[in-house]
């Protein structure tokens, strides 16, 4: 989707940041509000992100995706804000837009896969995947109610929005087929919270390298997020998953006391 940015900044601050604005113009269609007071009104709100330091931004731009710039003030009522325009990143714009209009963020693309956030529309595909007993026989520690749209909505609004990661879905690029899930969760082990990698490919699509491809993309994302270590909980009888974890660089750490027959593997992500 090609987004349009509306720049609604005080004149002096806008002039001080002409270099940053020029960089944004290379990537997006940009409307400077002071120069085009009405040109944006014919555009659809769901195709725009407003970048503003307007103190009443939440009221003025109600219904729009807003990224507030709080360079010398506190802007109330907005969900996303950064301190200075100079620190703006492309991911800030994408996240603000996605959260406002409930679009899933694409986390990673590999040669064959798209790893993206879950949506409520994935509920049916998820339910079918989890009804596959061959795929889920080693997953008795799974806690999320994947068929529940209310759960999915809450997960998006809390896990994704707060942490910037979670369990994502794995889609095959060539035909859009829903293959499974992969991502990063929180796991409490002996009263300490760890980052846990998860990967789950439906039985019909296993033994084709999708699991490894997805897991490697998740590990790359974890590094980008500044995560230093990952753990993996694997049932002792799940030989293929243990083999994959070892290929990914995970080593056995200890037995899990919270689930019978589960082993804990861990991996350092330092480069």
Q: How is the main sheet built? A: 5 strands, parallel
- Number of spatially distinct domains: 2
Radius of gyration: 22 Å
CATH superfamily of the largest domain: Gcn5-related N-acetyltransferase (GNAT)
Count of discrete alpha- or pi-helical segments spanning 4 or more residues? 9
**Contiguous uncertain segments of 5+ residues:** none
Mean pLDDT: 89
Output the strand order for the largest sheet.
Answer: 2-1-3-4-5
CATH first level of the largest domain: which class? Alpha Beta
The span between the termini is 34 Å
The total count of strands amounts to: 13
CATH architecture designation of the largest domain: 3-Layer(aba) Sandwich
The percent of residues in helical segments reads 25-40%
Shape: elongated
- Per DSSP, what share of the residues sits in E-state strands of 2 or more residues? 25-35%
Structural class: alpha/beta
Q: Might you state the CATH topology name of the largest domain?
A: Aminopeptidase
Give a short synopsis of this structure.
The chain has 271 residues and is α/β, with parallel strands linked by helices.
Would you give an account of this structure?
It is elongated, with a radius of gyration of 22 Å. Helices cover 31% and strands 28% of the residues. The protein has 2 domains: 4-101, 3-Layer(aba) Sandwich (Rossmann fold); 106-268, Gcn5-related N-acetyltransferase (GNAT) (Aminopeptidase). 29% of the residues are buried. The protein is of the alpha/beta class. The two termini are 34 Å apart. It is built from 9 helices and 13 strands. The longest helix is centred in the middle third of the chain and has 15 residues, at 149-163.
